[in-house]
Amino acid sequence: MLILLPPSEGKSVPRRGKPLDLGALSHPGLTPTRERVFDALVGLCAEDPDRAAEVLGLGPTQLDDVRRNATLREAPTTRADALYTGVLYDHLDLAGLDAAARRRATRQVAVTSSLFGLVRPGDRLPSYRLAGGVRLPGLGPVAALWRPVLGEAVLEAAGRGLLVDLRSSTYAAFWRPTPDLAPRVATVRVLHEQDGRRSVVSHFNKATKGRLVAALLTAGASPGTPAQLADALRDLGWHVETDAPTAAGTRLDVVVREV
Predict the structure, then answer these.
(1) 47, 152, 166, 201: which has the highest count of C-beta atoms within 10 A?
(2) Beta carbons of 187 and 166 less than 8 angstroms apart
């Protein structure tokens, strides 16, 4: 099983650690694209900070992100599982899992990254800012840069097992599973139920997905199909409803009333 997560805009800022080594990251087949995106981002932020802020969609209070991007070659790194923050990652709390669950995470979790394509929890990364909807000068949309190469890395990571795709719509555009993979692709939608009405609420969606991943890793669950994933989540106490399979996979609706 591979659990595919989105990144977070919020990231910790390492104070010490060796600088980035692109060649040492997981999935070395992505290195040429990583180098192109990395060079374009660093060059833009170092040469024209004002334009960089506009391209990256950053306001006056976020200019530190531009300055950090300009110095990414020398910046200290930390493990990816300590870098990403925000609601999903706070509720996943990889550092707080037991040792066995953390070991499973190194094998079963991957993060889609605008800058690095696909990273694993143990990859050492600097704090960067590059959202998935950005169009880099000279290169074009970030999603379009990753689309031709990301699929091979995801399939390598998933092997012949189940792919649990928890990416947001922005990062789902980086690569979409082909119909032949549909029988082993599961997506999850979180519905907040209140007073008999259901809605999609960002906070509940992110928090619940983080908790779901933590629960699966802690339990050591290894479902091989979307139906088995639904059963595993029900066994862990979640209310899960399963949609009919489609050419894109099977969607599971997880219904929650509180986080």
Answers:
(1) 166
(2) yes
